[in-house]
Amino acid sequence: MEIEALARKNIRELVAYSSARSEFKGKAEVWLDANENPFDTGLNRYPDPLQQEVKTRISELKGVSPDQLFLGNGSDEAIDLLIRIFCEPRIDHILTLPPTYGMYKVSASISDVAVRTINLDPDFQPAVAAILAAANAHSKLLFICSPNNPTGNRIDPLRIEALLEGFAGIVVVDEAYIDFSSGESCTQLLEKYPRLVVMQTFSKAWGLAGIRLGMAFADKRIIHLLNKVKPPYNVNQLTQAAALAALKNPTETQMRVKTLLTERKQLIHALEASPIVQQVYPSDANFLLVQTADPNGLYHFLIDQRIVVRNRSTVIGCEGCLRFTVGTPTENTRLIQQIDTFAKTLAPDA
Ligand SMILES: *Cc1c(COP(=O)(O)O)cnc(C)c1O
């Protein structure tokens, strides 16, 4: 099916709000068109609604054309917009592959859009045949998270391609953790599959969770729909400025990622040596899924030591597991020390 035909009728027919800043794009000296305050506070003007400068930089870095790029108030905004663009409430649904990121379901529920779940197989890979069998004409979006949160593994690219071939709706690949992965980004598949959306974010590797900036790479018809539905000034000026500053110095981000990858390796070693750790799952992300004998006991013990980790022990497929984000060397040492202390309280003679 054509991309426009997949979108809701009201969205196809929507005439986007035309802001003052999007109607006049030329050079001027006197700006009396947007009811802004004329006195210079450094922030008295509305920001660029399409973030052209930031997009130019990102497109150079990622090798994707600026018209295949959407920027949102975090990836979470892109998730919400995609659901609102493609899913008719109470009629259409999305497909998700648990255990996975919780926002897909929350965003769908807010829009009164149902969620069909097809659990990942025991290796945390998608069950392609079961997913395609669960899909019908109302399955508008399939969310694949790779590397997956909370399991940490990347999804087999051949299975992603099989899903792109077999699924008739939009396939969203959430690559929030791609910079920590040894695998390649799905952005290289964009030309071949116009129904693919790849999401990335400034929140993890870039160390800018506080500015709220997410990226979606897709065919320009999908980008057009996202731009039509988004609030006109969804990415504020401070965010655009902070992103530009970071993009001017990508080596700094690359160095931090390198340090975190070294730390991840050491953390895996230390955890595997612990008598209370049953399994450390392979990770292509900046966190580790770790199975232990007494997840709740360890979780509360760590809280008492003022260390907060994520308890995933009640999540399907993650029974007995905690999720540890890779921290600074000092933080990781402290985590390991406290896990050792907890282990000794369980087996004082060991
Ligand atoms: C952290 C994370 C994001 C990032 O969301 P933002 O809104 O960009 O901060 C997206 N997807 C997954 C799976 C994540 O874990």
What does this structure look like?
- It is a single chain.
- The protein is α/β, with parallel strands linked by helices.
- The chain is 38% helix and 15% strand.
- It has 13 helices and 11 strands.
- The protein has a 7-stranded mixed sheet with strand order 1-7-6-5-4-2-3, with helices on both faces. Strands 8-9-11-10 form a 4-stranded antiparallel sheet, with helices on one face.
- β2, α6 (103-110) and β3 form a beta-alpha-beta unit.
- The protein is globular, with a radius of gyration of 22 Å.
- It starts with a helix and ends with a helix.
- Residues 74-76, 101, 145, 149, 174, 176, 201, 203-204, 209, 214 line the site of pyridoxal-5'-phosphate.
Q: Key terms for this structure?
A:
350 residues; 7-stranded mixed sheet; 4-stranded antiparallel sheet; 13 helices; 11 strands; globular
Ligands and ions found: pyridoxal-5'-phosphate
Number of strands: 11
Largest sheet: 7 strands, mixed
Overall helicity: 25-40%
Radius of gyration: 22 Å
Counted by DSSP, the helix tally is 13
- Gross morphology is globular
> What structural category arises from helix and sheet content?
alpha/beta
Major beta sheet, strand line-up: 1-7-6-5-4-2-3
Percent range for β-strand residues: 5-15%
What oligomerization state is this entry in? single chain
In short:
The protein is of the alpha/beta class and 350 residues long. The strands form two sheets. The protein has a seven-stranded mixed β-sheet, sandwiched between helices. A four-stranded antiparallel β-sheet has the order 8-9-11-10, covered by helices on one side. It contains 13 helices and eleven strands.
